[in-house]
User: What shape does this take?
Amino acid sequence: MKPVKLVMSAFGSYAGKETIDFADASQGVFLITGDTGAGKTTIFDAITYALYDQTSGGRRDGDMMRSQYADPDVPTFVELTFLYGGKEYRIQRNPNYKRTSRRKNKEGTYTLTKENASVTLWMPDGREFPGKIREINEKIIEILGVGALQFTQIAMIAQGEFIRLLHASSKERKEIFSRIFDTNVYASLQMKLRDQSKSLYGKLEDNRKLCSHEIQGVTYLPESRYGKEWEEICEKLETSPKQILETLEHLLQEMGEREQEIRQQEAENRKQSEETAFRIRRAKELNQLFQQKTTAEEEIAARARLLTQQNQQEKEKSRRFKEFCLQLEAQLPKLSEQIAGWKNLLPKYDGLKEAQEAVLRAEKEQQASRQALEQTEEKLNEIQNMMQKAREQRGKLEEDASKIPALAETVKKLTAKQALLEEMSDTYGRVLRYGKKQKQARQEAEQALQLFQEKSRDYEEKNRSFIREQVGIIAQELIPGQPCPVCGATEHPQKAELSPHAVTEQQVEEAKKDREQADFTLNQRRENYQKAQKDWEREHSLLQQDGTRVFGDSFQPEMIKPAQKECLAGLQQASAVLEEAQKQEKRLKQQEKKQEKLSEEQAMCQQQKEELVKKQYEAALAWETSRQALELIQKELPFPQVCELKRHLERAGQEKLSLENKKAAAETALQKLRQDIAESQGILAEQQKNQKLLLRQLEGKEPAELEELSEYSRQLEGEAKGLEKEKLKLAAGKAANQRARRQLAKLYQERTALKQQYELVSNLDKTANGNLPQHIRLDFQTYVQRRYFRTIIGEANRRLVKMNGNQFMLRCREVEQLGRQGEAGLDLDVYDLVTDKVRDVKTLSGGESFLAALSMALGMADVIQNTAGRVHLDTMFIDEGFGSLDEEARDRAIAILNELAGNTRLVGIISHVTELKEQMDRKLIVKKTEKGSRVKWEAES
Assistant: This one.
């Protein structure tokens, strides 16, 4: 990686936009120098930040790099153009910071707004790399092949970083080398071996668990000869597979033998069950005959009792039937005569119905006439009341309508006054604004006057000083023996001396220009003040004129707002009253029309009333005539209504029919009872015949005892169920054991193959990952990296012995001296060439440590460049450290760096050492000012 151009904007100590073109120092060694705190290290920070979103020292993050000297509207960013592998990349990155907003807020001022962090990467083909901050950071690491920590240790050694490079642990160096030399392939191999070993071990464990599960699931007979042996196998799982399978085979043989025994027992049980069932059936048939004999005796006795009861009932019912027939012969003739008489009266009720309907019609007509008359009278009264109210309302409406002209005039005056007050309020607002502008313009004019006075005094002082210094200038040109151009004297015993801080003519001219500029500004500010004064006076005069017209001589601007509120309230009230009066005027016209309509309705109602009175009299006369005719008809009839006559006829007919039905029912019941007696006599004879037959069949026999046979049958049934249950359980256990035998045979076969694979892979895993017992913890990747490390140390020592005068050299710690705890293998020691002893690298002094770290960085750069890897670092930056060296060591170090740089590499050094400034031809000067730092190249010929 080689930088081409670096642009910093409002970054660190740089307030504006600073550009460093590294084309002026594309190869070789150059010096970065400047005042303390000017921002030399910030250049390294900017490069590291642009690439990795971190600073070179790691002590400040990007959010802290916003320049305190920058104006709020200046953006903060770093843009780096660099070459890598012959291709040019460009990256621009900015942190989170606050800047001035581009738009004003509601108050008309600019506020600070947050600018979020962002990064953009342009690829060699000019296209923008797609992705967010995290993706671009990962892409940079992919391009360069190293992360921020590795970059600061091998390409950009910041203040204090050379010690970290020298004192880095094996773990840290391992991470650096894995990226630089692409040794992750060995780590991947280690990881694959570890994962494969774990996987095989897990498969062995799974196999063991499956075997244990199958063994635990095996069952055996309670009386098994091999049960105890199998229990011992379950407790000791290390039993040989052969013994386990043989024992399991014995258990299966026992189960087969027991199955045969159960089949024989089931056959014997079935035979005994069939014999017992036959005996039970014969016993049940005999007991059933005895039960039939008992039932027949009970039925014969019951039937004899029933026949006796039926004979008694027949005698009683015959007697009651004869008595009922005698009563019926006396009632039926009278009832028939009464029914015939009522039927002859039915035609006379037709005239009664007509007379009743005539009376009802007359009543309805009379009632309708009365209701119509009442409604007409009510409506007439209502119309009279409405006319009275209308007369009263009309008077009130006429009174309200008479006020409309006066109210309209009041509204007109208040509207004009409100408009004038609003105009005065606007004028007062302008007076206040112009007053503020006038005050501001006066202050600006006073400030401009003060500045002009200061510039005038400065010019006058410098001019006077310049004139005074002319004497000293002339005195410097005086030659002994030659006349003075002022006084003509040829001797000059006491010459005027030139002040060490003499004012130049250029300074006088600049002071004069400053005074003229201040005078121009003063005139502008005075014109602005005069214009603001005129604007204020114009608006103030208008306000006073209108105020005097409205409020009189006592007018004050504060009176405007209360007057506006009062006027607005009065205007709203007057407008509301006027609007209501106009509505009342409309109502008055409507009321007049309503009165005319009511008068017409009153006349019509009066005419209707007279007609209804006449109609009501006629209806009353018709009703009285109909009523008298109805009374004459009702006196001749036994019932007032024909419906009552019909009810009596219906009731008499039902009574006659009921008597006839009762007679028929009694006769039928008597016949049914006589039939039942005959049937009972036949059934009794049949039962007595069957009883004699049963007695002949059971002669000489006794009832059988079924309980003992049933108990024995239940016992046989229980034994059969027990055998069936045992058979099913035995079959399930045997099937499970057979499956377990097959599974165990398969699992043991798999275990043999897994054991062979695991032993091989486990040994490879322990060897590759440095976990062999009684051996040094040195993994495969570290073993490979030690080769690179030794090569780096060799390259470093090639320069180190030159720089330290053959005092000491670096050495990779031998395997025998490595510890057994933690990661090791890339540890660094110092071999003292003078004492021929090895010591820890941390025993080096500050200067020695710097030389050693510098040599390590240079050696690493050489190895990286010469290795067929993908990391190419053609640039190295060194921040301080040379101050700890004596002159001889410093000269040797610079010579080595010049040799390293050659024509292809770029080496940048930050240093305050004066001698380095004299030694370096190319220098990047960082200058500190009150407005931030500036940077420029300076080359000496």
